[in-house]
Request: fold
Amino acid sequence: MASDGGGREPRRVLEFYSGIGGMRYSLMKALVNAQVVEAFEINDRANDVYQHNFGHRPYQGNIQCLTASDLDKYGADAWLLSPPCQPYTRQGLQKDTGDARAFSFLQILELMPFLLQPPSMLFVENVVGFETSDTHAKLIEILEKTNFITQEFILSPLQFGIPYSRPRYFCLAKRKPSSFVNEFLNSQLIQSPRPLFEHFDTVANEDDSLQEDRHKLLQSCQPIEKFLELKNPRNDIDVEPATLMTGLSNATPRTLGGDNDHEYDSLHQYYVPPSLVERWGSAMDVVYPDSNRCCCFTKSYYRYVKGTGSLLATVQPMKRDKTSLKEQCLRYFTPREVANLHSFPEDFVFPEHISLKQRYALLGNSLSIAVVAPLLQYLFTEP
Reply:
């Protein structure tokens, strides 16, 4: 097999729903010969972050207004799309194609048969559940009509050694006569990352292999402490847990999570007030520095404590099952730590004017670079 490189011109890429640049960072990490010629994103704050890190501001108009002629002008070889997931999430209303947030993606799909210069590759990322949606059925229908072959994946960062449970659906498509390295996986839904790194002549015992992969996940993941920027919070703030928790009891939500720049200097803003621990403790997912998994962070992390992501115990008890959560001084993961678990590079930064809550929301809408990069490398590799 050959990587898509050599002396040829870089592949021209369009990045739809570009967010804070997770897809572009994945493309860079994949080390493929490709260039993003345009990105599209309607969120103004996301575009501020994207521009701050890449020096290019995405097109901010409504994607639904794009025509086939508009898209043809880019002469793009590949389209990378991470459309809104809300129409398909388990917590949402699951309106699917009836959700207004699905309209722009459907509009782009409808344009494909009318393109004079259709892309040769397509990559779509979304939540688990998308694969059973009407939107997915429409995607596959149009791809088949426009001469594409597909391979679909459901993968999590856990399968790549990252202690972060964030399973996502991915569709990889190539327009004939292009083909995948592992052609026998065409039209299949794959839940193992092994085909991304190895060439198989058969798929015998795939179920057994998948079971073995899942069994090894937690043993192979790095501990959470490797992704923390605040390695020893107690030393950083130099106060005893009892003193800290007394202060937190008297704190207001404003002092714990306001939007002013000077508040970023305070570690106290990341600690969970005892009142919230008392009320929601039984519903919290609590992890420790030596844990090898944490729950998916959503865009509502820090605004709510239930079902939005894990909380970190900063005081490790001798016996975890016999120590109250209040004594463990729970805190939120910082935005940098969430970015680390999403595998964003060290040089990724937020502009100063992006508030703390906005940072969490933007990260919650992003993707795992550790998962997407090898998928893109596989997509761009030629047999």
User: Anything to note?
Assistant: Residues 201-206, 233-265 have pLDDT under 50 and may be disordered. The chain has 13 helices and ten strands. The first helix runs from residue 22 to 29.
